[in-house]
Amino acid sequence: MGKRVAIxxxxxxxxxxxxxxxxxxxxxxxxxxxxDLGGLWRFTEHVEEGRASLYESVVSNSCxxxxxxxxxxxxxxxxxxxPNSQFLEYLKMYANHFNLLKHIQxxxxxxxxxxxxxxxxxxxxxxxxxxxxxxxxxxFDAVMVCTGFLTNPYLPLDSFxxxxxxxxxxxxxxxYKHPDIFKDKRVLVIGMGNSGTDIAVEASHLAKxxxxxxxxxxxxxxRIFDSGYPxxxxxxxxxxxxxxxxxxxxxxxxxxxxKINNWLNHANYGLMPDDRxxxxxxxxxxxxxxxxxxxxxxxxxxxxxxxxxxxxxxNTSKEEPIDIIxxxxxxxxxxxxxxxxxxxxxxxxxSLYKYIFPANLQKSTLAIIGLIKPLGSMIPTGETxxxxxxxxxxxxxxxxxxxxxIEEVNSRKENKPGWFGLCYCKALQAxxxxxxxxxxxxxxxxxxLFSMLLMDPHLALTVFFGPCSPYQFRLTGPGKWEGARNAIxxxxxxxxxxxxxxxxxxxxxxxxxxxxxxxxxxxxxxxxLIFL
Length: 532
Hints:
Helices cover about 30% and strands about 15% of the residues. The protein is of the alpha/beta class. The strands form 9 sheets. A 5-stranded parallel β-sheet has the order 3-2-1-7-24, with helices on one face. It has a 5-stranded parallel β-sheet with strand order 9-18-10-11-14, with helices on one face. Helix 12 runs antiparallel to helix 13. The chain is globular and about 65 Å long. The mean pLDDT is about 90.
């Protein structure tokens, strides 16, 4: 009989963890406090305690080819950027396809997860749950926590003098569901992350006036990149990642700023980030520039003072009348069912080795999945974390001694910028491809480009120069998927299937044919130099 594993949460990471446990012969039991799976991607009209909340119009920021599970592509007729309702359908397809539902206990809240008295020997945990007002206790050999980090709203009202005197309405973006409440109102959205920007743009279609307040600015990009391609299929390639990590940080940030400003000069729109060295999460919004240039959204600096029916922004004494304030100020995270001696959260971080394992445990039988902010999709990131974590929990893979893990965690917490590549210095940030490859190396599943170049050069070139799609993570090693190669070679077909509905015949001129041949030869020379 395999080890019993308790999984907390049936969102994207929880589902992946169930499947990974089953693949390794373990016995998973997933506890989900709500009545359905999906986590963040399940829209409800009301906010549910302990669960991430989204608004009705949410669309994925990562395209379908880059944000699917590594052995389960999205349906080819899905749009490239997926609305939340279809994303939830996809998660249900995944759960049904791999027969995961029978391992989930819905409407079951995890009250506590504590070490057993013989933990130093057995590594076991006592899990106390609540279902229909009945409390139960069970012993598990391991625990995987998949609750995410978007459940506890951060609402720093003390930072806004006069907010208690404000007679209008104010709330955190977590409470927002529909734009109807903004009709004919003067709206202020504080915080220029993805949620804040989305809400400001939506409000601008109904509101009398909309202000978007930002302290440090942000890089705003479109989902549609060069030649109409999805942004992450162009940006997230092994070749580009290698190039970025080979260049000094100032050069990389300058090149990135230049590229982004080619689409939208951020300085002219009041959006330019103050700190252009440390990478801040991109804001994906196709509409914002149009709303600004047509006077529907007004960008403003931070708030100096809030009055009864107005606000005063910094750098000005003018009062702006306001009816509704939306605080899109982010989230904090915590694990209320775990003792601080197991996982302690400080300054927006937890002492987790490789963002997964508590570094101070005598037995590595507890894993946190999905507590990371990669510059890439969370689904393949959480899934890859789960693949490695399950093999550690099973005992196939070993972790280094606690002192080595603690040293690595402390080094990361210092947030020292490197000399090369993009600067990932914010809490929980990580270089997507580098991080995934590191975890794949631990389970011997990282694609070997050198041997691939000899055995299957077409695939090798596609893997290196093309999008780093999740299918690459199933080409070899444990959990190898026979359909991975075909999925990689046909990813652009699925991308254009839903957009290229009107085919226009185009004949190539001799000059264009010559250019294509010349480009191909130049590519071969570049590959030879890279792998020399």
